[in-house]
Design goal:
Structural class: alpha/beta
Radius of gyration: 36 Å
Strand order of the largest sheet: 15-16-17-12-18
Length: 899
């Protein structure tokens, strides 16, 4: 991976103008196609396979009049007046006739009509005109709403005496989130953080520009995708929020590494390539974890959530692609102007100290405080975050309704008027469907079921009970006594469904509970059920990926536990504000009592990727120091100090971008942005920068290392490009004339016992290397190491110009291993390998070749101008086979030998 990224970064630097032009063209194409072809967003939440959705789909076929969205006109007269006067009834009847002629209107329910009940408020001051429409919310034409508003105004004028008519209902809701100038504050804060970190306007603007470009492309493609699939309005906003946050952070990682390398004197093009390979590897790892987590939203089996996850994953994928292609091109364009300035004189430094991000001494003081009494730090952190998570126990999930609309909007005002005069349940009625196709008295059957439902606790009214025109399906509108997102309404839905067997036994009819409120309850329930499998997926993925990166058992366990603490604290803070109502007014929270159903699963997925990002960037520096120096406590301090500035900057930027969507964000985006902002802050500053150093200090050397069996099973994921650094260091080592170069080469067995130690080799091309020694000296293990078959060795090794173990797979095509104990004619096998273009032939246990003809054939092959490695116990036994260009390497006894 890192070698590929190295070549990619160098190519992007050399073709920088072309790379920039291509990305600009992609932006223009995506944006233009979206403008021309997009079909708009669709906020019709559905959950295939649920009772409510199946019943709603059935109604769409047999009773389309009640399957679309609806509007409401609420006539309210002043105190002391009654709405049921003769003149008012006449005015309402006239308005109903006009409404019936409006396009997209299916029917109109006159509150004073025969057979209609519950449409006049208990105090007699309000009348509710229900207007079912033929279409879903997304298809409601503006002209329809304009005509209904005009008729409402005319009705208010006709009634007079201070009467007012409110227009609302789902048809007037505006669930499409919009960007506001407040979101720009997040970008402004990000710019300030970048300026303080880089002290360069070019370096500070570059991440912002590329993040905006990536978001533009992603949003364009998302709107273009509406041609083939419905996409909720939340999807592009989530993509904007995530795309900006990760896009800035990923660019920050590359720029930080590039500037450090420039400061060390590295050439611009070489620095760009190395930064792309090293920091780019971490970016790909972080982006991959976020994308996998977002795609994991499909486990819920809910279409709108799946499309939302895919849309957000597309934004993250483009952020990664831009980071490893466009950023290198722009860094190459900037050239030496990105090189950090020389340190200022002491006086200038003192004058400007307060404007800089935390200096190493602050980071050093922080980590020393966290690790001075590590057990105390761990206990305080865990207990503190556990306390913060307590409010999460009250967290309720629901889909947004008009009570979540912007204050002052027509939908929100009408919602409040209906709640005030009729009760909150009138804003979220339920529909009970009945299969009455076999009944001889469909009207009577529906009325009997409705009469039973009226007596059930939690039912405020049953204003409508009627069969459809064909007489095969009956609908019963049930108004709860509580709001749509309340626990009591959810209980009512359960009671109604609990009566389904009773209705079947008593009346021989099957019933089902549906309606937007029931669908919302089912969506929330299914999302709640999906949290456990999704959590298992995320936690399992976390453990595996981090074990691959850090080759450790404790590091993944600690990282995953810290992630769960961050999620719990974020849930607790979200419940504290959006459920319990604390600070709601300060944060402009229009509606409390529940949060949007898909918030927990999105928070878990996104925060997982971001947490792994910080974990890799911080702990990889600690591990790097430990590997080179072996002191775990010094490694914690050194690694923390070197990584803290970037982690602090990245976390502050991420927090600012998310927090900027809170004050003026929509009811859908606001809680998601708030929870992500809290989650990022807690995870970065409390978990990663406080808890992690303390846990590593407690574990010491035990923090590093995998059980041998697990170490062999797990592939290696080089998230920081260490293999490339190793490869570049050995680029000119050995020279073109050496077939094998080895320095301090060593290998241990599964118990940690040495197989061979301190191997030093420099073998010219055309030479035969003889590995010899009696007993378990590791000669066979060394031979297979040189062949690229054993890859767990330590030290430097280069064979045929390829650095191992990085290029073991490539080497295996150029070498051929012959086990002389298993081959009748090793000489013939070696000759065949050379004829196939093999550059290095390795023969194990040559001294077992005893037949004269086989030895003669082997002698002839070894005499060729080629490179060989052979192993034996005593070189004197094969002296007659060896050519003049032979190099002997004897090995001392070791505890074990691996064959």
């Amino acid at each position: 991976m890192s070698s590929f990224l190295y070549r990619l970064g160098r190519s992007a630097a050399r073709l920088r103008v072309l790379v920039v032009a291509v990305w600009v063209l992609v932006l223009a194409a995506a944006g233009g196609a979206a403008v021309v072809f997009n079909h708009g967003t669709d906020d019709a939440f559905s959950i295939p396979g649920s009772e409510s959705q199946d019943a709603l789909d059935h109604l769409g076929r047999v009773f389309p009049e009640v399957s679309g969205t609806s509007a409401q006109l609420v006539l309210v007269v002043p105190d002391g007046q009654q709405v049921s006067t003769a003149s008012t009834r006449t005015a309402v009847a006239s308005a109903v006739e006009r409404i019936e002629k409006v396009d997209q209107v299916t029917t109109v329910v006159n509150p004073f009509g025969s057979g209609v009940s519950g449409a006049v408020s208990g105090d007699g001051r309000a009348a509710l005109i229900a207007v079912p429409l033929k279409v879903d919310l997304a298809q409601v034409e503006p002209s329809t709403k304009e005509h209904l508003t005009g008729i409402a105004n005319d009705l208010a004028t006709t009634v007079g005496d201070g009467a007012h008519v409110y227009t609302g209902g789902d048809a007037f809701s505006n669930k499409v989130p919009k960007l506001s100038p407040t979101e720009g504050i997040g970008l402004g804060i990000a710019l300030i953080v970048l300026l303080l970190m880089f002290r360069s306007m070019i370096a500070a603007v570059m991440p912002l520009a590329t993040a905006v470009l990536g978001v533009g492309i992603s949003v364009g493609l998302i709107y273009l995708a509406t041609v083939v699939t419905p996409i909720s309005s939340t999807a592009p906003m989530l993509a904007v929020m995530l795309g900006l946050a990760v896009g800035i952070d990923y660019a920050l990682f590359l720029l930080s590494r590039h500037r450090d390398q420039l400061a060390e004197g590295l050439d611009v093009e070489e620095s760009v390539a190395r930064a792309t390979a090293t920091a780019g590897s971490a970016v790909i790892f972080a982006g991959l974890t976020v994308v996998i987590a977002l795609l994991g939203l499909t486990v819920a089996g809910i279409p709108f959530l799946t499309t939302m996850g895919i849309a957000a994953a597309v934004a993250v994928a483009f952020a990664v692609a831009i980071a490893v292609t466009l950023i290198p091109a722009l860094m190459a364009m900037a050239g030496k102007r990105l090189r950090p300035r020389a340190p200022r004189p002491p006086k200038a430094q003192k004058a400007r100290r307060r404007l800089r991000l935390p200096k190493p001494q602050i980071a050093k003081a922080w980590v020393r405080t966290a690790t001075k009494a590590p057990l105390l730090t761990v206990v305080i952190t865990i207990v503190g975050l556990a306390v913060c998570a307590i409010p999460a126990a009250d967290l309720r999930l629901a889909l947004p309704d008009n009570g979540s609309e912007e204050e002052g909007s027509t939908a929100r005002v009408t919602y409040e008027v209906v709640s005030e005069h009729f009760g909150p349940g009138y804003n979220g009625p339920l529909i009970v469907t009945a299969d009455i196709i076999q009944s001889t008295d469909p009207v009577g059957l529906v009325n009997k079921i409705a009469a039973e439902i009226r007596t059930m606790p939690g039912v405020a009214a049953v204003p409508l009970a009627t069969p459809n025109p064909k007489g095969d399906t009956g609908i019963i509108q049930v108004v709860p006594t509580t709001a749509a997102d309340s626990a009591q309404t959810e209980d009512l839905v359960k009671r109604l469904r609990g009566q389904e067997q009773h209705f079947l036994d008593t009346y021989g009819t099957r019933t089902a509970v549906t309606g937007i409120t029931a669908v919302g309850i089912d969506v929330s329930a299914k999302l709640g059920q999906a949290l456990v499998p999704f959590g298992i997926l995320v936690v399992g993925l976390s453990l595996i990926l981090l074990a691959m990166v850090f080759r450790s058992t404790w590091v993944p366990l600690k990282a995953t536990f810290g992630y769960l603490l961050s999620v719990g604290a974020a849930f607790g803070a979200t419940s504290f504000v959006f459920q319990q109502g604390h600070l709601a007014e300060t944060l402009h929270v229009a509606h409390t009592g529940s949060v949007i159903s898909f918030l927990p699963i999105i928070l878990m997925g996104v925060l997982f990727g971001l947490a792994m990002d910080y974990e890799v960037f911080l702990v990889s520096r600690i591990r790097e120091h430990y590997v080179h120096h072996g002191d775990p406590h010094q490694a914690i301090e050194s690694g923390f100090v070197s990584a803290s500035r970037v982690v602090v900057a990245a976390a502050l930027i991420m927090f600012a971008v998310f927090a900027a969507f809170v004050p003026e964000g929509s009811a859908t985006i606001k809680p998601i942005a708030f929870s992500l902002a809290i989650g990022v802050f807690v995870d970065a500053f409390v978990v990663r920068m406080t808890l992690v150093p303390a846990v590593l200090a407690l574990l010491g050397k035990r923090a590093w290392g995998l059980p041998p069996k697990l170490d062999r099973m797990l592939p290696v994921f080089d998230a920081e490009g260490d293999s490339l650094v190793h490869e570049l260091r050995l680029a000119d080592w050995g020279g073109p004339d050496e077939v094998i170069s080895a320095h301090e080469l060593s290998l241990d067995d599964d118990r940690g016992h040495p197989i061979y130690r301190g191997v030093e080799l420099h073998v010219p091309r055309g030479t035969t290397l003889v590995l010899h020694g009696y007993g378990s000296v590791g000669k066979t293990a060394l031979l297979f190491t040189l062949a690229g078959r054993v890859t767990k060795h330590k030290g430097d090794l280069k064979v045929l110009g390829r650095v191992l173990p990085q290029h073991s797979h490539a080497l295996r095509r150029a070498v051929h291993v012959i086990r002389c104990r298993e081959v009748t004619d090793p000489g013939a096998a070696a000759a065949a390998a050379l004829a196939d273009g093999v550059e290095l032939v390795l023969l194990d246990d040559v001294d077992v070749v005893l037949r004269t003809d086989a030895r003669d054939a082997l002698r002839d092959v070894l005499a060729r101008d080629a490179s060989f490695v052979v192993s034996c116990q005593d070189p004197e036994r094969i002296r007659d086979l060896l050519p003049a260009t032979t190099q002997l390497f004897g090995q001392a006894n070791q505890p074990a030998e691996v064959h």
